[in-house]
Amino acid sequence: MQALILAGGKGTRLRPLTVYTPKPVVPVCNRPFLLYQLDTLRRAGVTDVTLSLSYQPHKIEQQLGDGSEFGVKINYTVEPQPLGTAGAYKYAEDLIREPTVVFNGDIVTDLDLKEVIRQHNERHAVATVVLAPVENPLAYGVVETEPDGRVRRFLEKPGADEVSVNTINAGTYILDPRVLDLVPAGESYSFEYGLFPDLLRRGESFYAHVPEGAYWIDIGAPSRYLQVHHDILAGRVGGVRFKSRRGDSDLATHAEIDDLSLIADNCTVKPGAQVVNSVLGEGVHVEEKARIENSVVWPHTRIGAGAHLSHAVVGRGCHIGRSAVVGTGSVLGDKTNLTDYTQTGGAL
Q1: Catalytic annotation, pick one of 10, 59, 114, 157
Q2: I need a surface site. Which of 81, 103, 211, 282 has the fewest CB within 10 A?
Q3: 161 pLDDT above the threshold of 80
Q4: With bands split at pLDDT 50, 70 and 90, how would you rate the model's confidence at 346?
């Protein structure tokens, strides 16, 4: 079994965070995001991984290398132009020789992938799509299934009167290599609108897998990017363990840091500062009486005395001035400089 991660998107919805940092390596709890997908694959015994890239590929390869540090072997393929989800799969066909786990490159999940593979093989399926139940399926692709698990039909971005189920396409597939023959070469082609409807028309053995109680989130928007941090800190994502929530940092005795917060190496937190349910990246400097709550701060940012961050995401190398207020919904790109007493805030 091999794996292909579709990680070529520009991360437009996550801007300004992704202007200088491609989405596959944005930090999630101080680790490049893609490492969580590699963990899921490795737990299932899948270690031959291809990354399909497009946007700033050198930055991704620089961080992940050949994968040996993370217990996998990584190959890279770079699309000459955006080819769609299935088109990117086709473009990587020279590297695909076996049934392949395909991940969309913007999901965090604690899916039991080993069970998905077992069921796929047991059913002799040509394709398996993993589904996730959600409260509001209208913004996603709804998938209807037969009692035996076969896929009945896909409804992409359906209207309220069309929805009969709440199971959506979770962006994880297992595909037999012969599926590659059904994808046109060199064209933009999608799984959702092209390949999957074609499999249904052909009557292929196309099944769905609905995991029980698996965590699933698409981190493609700032609100969900922040949410995944809160979920990991609270222990709601299986398989994620911290050796320690405190790095080798200078944390003042009279600073208040709660048990949930995650502090990377080389941080400084001065007396009277408060850090609550938050993540501080490497080298973050927090001055006296600043308060950071329910927020994510990327490396080498400086938080001025008396500043207050709440439900915010702050990029790399920023400067937050004295007594500034960075309120709910604020997303600051790298190297943002907020002068003293500035106030920001808005809906995520």
Answers
A1: 157
A2: 81
A3: no
A4: low
Token pair in block for residue 96: 């695909």
Q: Indicate the pLDDT class of residue 162, thresholds 50, 70 and 90.
A: low
The sign of the torsion formed by the CA atoms of 57, 108, 95, 80 equals negative
Which residues have CB under 8 Å from 293's CB, separation 6+?
274, 275, 276, 277, 278, 309, 310, 311
The CA dihedral of 224, 226, 228, 234, to the nearest 10 degrees, is: -140
C-beta of residue 169 within 8 angstroms of C-beta of residue 192: yes
Angstrom distance (rounded) from CA 59 to CA 176: 31
* Mean pLDDT score, 117-127: 94
Indicate the burial class of 129 (C-beta count within 10 angstroms; 0-12, 13-18, 19 or more).
Answer: buried
Q: What are phi and psi of 274, to 5 degrees?
A: -130, 135
Q: Active-site residue 270, yes or no?
A: no
Tell me the residue type at 158: P
Query: pTM of the prediction?
Result: 0.89
Question: Token pair of 125, please?
Answer: 């399926």
Between CA 281 and CA 266 the distance in angstroms is: 9
Matching residue, tokens 């050796």: 243
Q: What is the four-CA torsion angle of 151, 99, 69, 86, rounded to 10 degrees? A: -60
